[in-house]
Structures are given as C-alpha cells and as structure tokens.
Amino acid sequence: MAKTATNQQYVVCVRNEACEDLEVRKIYRLLPDKRASLNGYVRVIDESGEDYLYPEAYFVRVKLPQKAQKAVAASA
Fold it and tell me: Fewer Cβ atoms within 10 A, N terminus or C terminus of the chain?
C-alpha cells in the first residue's frame, strides 16, 4: 500500500556542519531506515527529491498537523 501524506514522518534540521546542502530550520521528509538508525544516521529526502543519509543529531523529529503534512507533501 502506498504511503499517504498523513502517515509520513518529518524532521527539522537543527545543524548542518559539513553538510552545506542542508538548511537549518527546514522541514525534511524522513524515510524509515533501521540500519542507518542503528549507526546514528537518518535518511531524508532533500530538495532534489533524492534521499541521503545524515547524522541523526542534525535533526529533531516533528509531528505535523494533517493539514501541514498535506501542504508539505504537495510542495515536494
């Protein structure tokens, strides 16, 4: 079953040392990746639409209201 905008997870970037492609205070979509998580990383989708691994400490997980999730998904 395809994921809908309402069951996706999001993070906010709070640091970007050595990762200039990340924008602090920007919301990114989080993709599940257990292996990455075990190693202290998260997989996020950037502006290009591609997913990349970044240090987990660079992000804070956020729960967006349903309306905000739909708006973020529509802008991707």
Answer: N
